[in-house]
Fold this sequence. Notes:
- α2 links the parallel β4 and β5 (106-111).
- By secondary structure, this protein is of the alpha/beta class.
- A seven-stranded parallel beta sheet has the order 2-9-8-7-6-4-5, with helices on both faces.
- The protein is built from five helices and nine strands, in the order αββββαβαβαββαβ.
- The protein has helices at residues 3-15, 87-102, 118-127, 141-147, 198-213, and strands at 36-37, 59-60, 71-72, 77-82, 106-111, 132-136, 156-159, 170-174, 220-222.
- Mean pLDDT is 87; it is low at 1-24.
- α2 (87-102) packs across α5 (198-213) and α3 (118-127) crosses α4.
- It starts with a helix and ends with a strand.
- It is 27% helix and 15% strand.
Amino acid sequence: MRRPLLAAAALCAATALLTGCGSGDDWSRPHPSPSAVGELGAGFLGLADPSASPAPEATVTPRPGSWSGVRPSRGYRVVLLTAGTDRPTRTLVAAVRAWAEREDVELRTVDAADSPDLLTAADSAVALRADLVISAGNDLIDPLATVTPNHLAQQFLVVGAELAEPTHNVTAVDWTGASFRGEGLGMSSTYAPASFTPARCAAAVRAGTAAALSGRTGIVVWLDTF
Length: 226
């Protein structure tokens, strides 16, 4: 009779850094499906017909602030998947954490530095079964290109970069100065670390999560103006 207890204790110890073991922090239990509280502004999709939907993999240029009326419903579960210690990545991570605190989001972090490799880190993020996985760090683009097509029920948000061939469950927020796409393509000639300002990163997180919550997924949200 003690074996189940020992197994539970071992599982808790192995995952403590990611999940915790308190009853109030148990993501294995069902929770209400998340929803968007509020609606995207009319200029978010930048389409002539407000009732139209963008094509898969389309790039939309939203009107600044058109995402500000959307926030997540209570209990929204998000995993921040991060790799790298460069300034752009640190700024993105800070923006995600500030957004999560402001919106009372249940946030967990998977840092690739704590995993054997980047692919394992991405798999670990998916295994938590969050409502949304947000990635920060260019090093994660190629691993996500491998992982995301195999987990179509999991929603992903890539901030400050994008996948070359995203599936419908991957939304990206990008701008001139970012737009790394991996797959051996090298860094864009327009890449500018200085473009990852706290204000832009905060707007990118807000715009990207608003798109995901509103079902506008599988697109690139272009955020030159915010």
